[in-house]
Amino acid sequence: MSHLDNIPSTPGKFKMEKSPYINRLRLHSSLAKLTFWSFVFLGLILIFFFRSPSSNPLPSDLSRRSLRTSSWGGPAWEKRVRSSARVRARNGISVLVTGAAGFVGTHVSAALKRRGDGVLGLDNFNDYYDPSLKRARQALLERSGIFIVEGDINDVALLKKLFEVVAFTHVMHLAAQAGVRYAMENPGSYVHSNIAGFVSLLEVCKSANPQPAIVWASSSSVYGLNTKVPFSEKDRTDQPASLYAATKKAGEEIAHTYNHIYGLSLTGLRFFTVYGPWGRPDMAYFFFTKDILKGKSITIFEAADHGTVARDFTYIDDIVKGCLASLDTAEKSTGSGGKKKGSAQLRVFNLGNTSPVPVSDLVSILERHLKVKAKKNIMKLPRNGDVPFTHANISSAQRELGYKPTTDLQTGLKKFVRWYLSYYSGGKKASG
């Protein structure tokens, strides 16, 4: 297609040196080639999404990315949706919580319900980690009167139906494909959930009347490679260290676009290593506990030159306070039916504990609470997107949200261990 390079960018200045017939042949040839390569690229994209490499069996992989929406609709289903989303407190809000059966989603949903807000959950119950833990969280929420609709955030028809049944004032968007390392095995699932899923939700929200205010979970991982310590929301975040971080950074840029064009009120929350009861089994504190109790060796990573790997561990109750404060201070969206009527609120906050702790100290605390000595295997931090150090600057959240974490790692891990031993005691899972 090098012959196209001779066509000037300014129309009307091209002197035809060949006959019109020859030029028409070249034009047709170029269009044919352009069409051919367009189909080739489209094919490659489809192959990437539907056959992305994964160490897991194909059925499991598809269950993570497909629209596994259970049957929905009908009078009985709509009645459950309305009942769950009904506001019971004066000046309460009605919130759609995506990823409601997840770790943070469960705690946020329960906290909203306790204070009288209307809460409806949405979750696809994928098998990235043990779905039975998600089902147990679901049962916990159902006892509080919270209904979790089983469906995918990319199912636009379902999302539209939910907004038809309930005029949500707020959305707490926590549905996402989590985990830094798994992104190297199954990149397509991150694009599907963290980018396409977010866009699907925003598309429905922009057309809702009234538009809801949206709070969504970003990640401390967006800070990537070139960031000052402690991490500030003003730092550059254009060099993410992992695909997971890149999808979360893309979400922040997409949010800016929808805020600018459609007047959606958007607040992003960058979480820093959240831990606590009902947590995620893929997190270090969780599988360390499991392996220490089983007498298995645990791997502790160290940075280059025997440097310390440290994390700004944040207890779940502190994260919940930040989430609720973000919802309470979110201004109304300014659009209606997809048309912007004025500038809208756009914010990003760090939610951390401001006290980075070496992972080796985390293990020592677990040993004390479990009363078991860990078998340790020290290894160099692999080049898989993990960063050696995280530390949150929370001054903006303190100033605008009144955010103030109060739980230290010693106290938080004691509560987690108590829950873990209760939930998994004797191989039987307790209900609370």
Automatic annotation (TrEMBL):
EC number(s) recorded for this UniProt protein: 5.1.3.6
PANTHER family noted in UniProt: EPIMERASE-RELATED
Reaction equation(s) it catalyzes: UDP-alpha-D-glucuronate = UDP-alpha-D-galacturonate
The family this protein is said to belong to: Belongs to the NAD(P)-dependent epimerase/dehydratase family.
Protein name: UDP-glucuronate 4-epimerase
Source species, domain of life: Eukaryota
One Gene Ontology molecular-function label: UDP-glucuronate 4-epimerase activity
Start and end residues of each NAD-dependent epimerase/dehydratase domain: 95-332
Subcellular location: Golgi apparatus, Golgi stack membrane
GO cellular component terms, A-Z: Golgi cisterna membrane
Statement: the UniProt record of this protein carries the keyword Calcium: no
Transmembrane regions listed in the UniProt entry: 31-50
Swiss-Prot/TrEMBL keywords: Carbohydrate metabolism, Golgi apparatus, Isomerase, Membrane, NAD, Transmembrane, Transmembrane helix
Keyword Transport: no
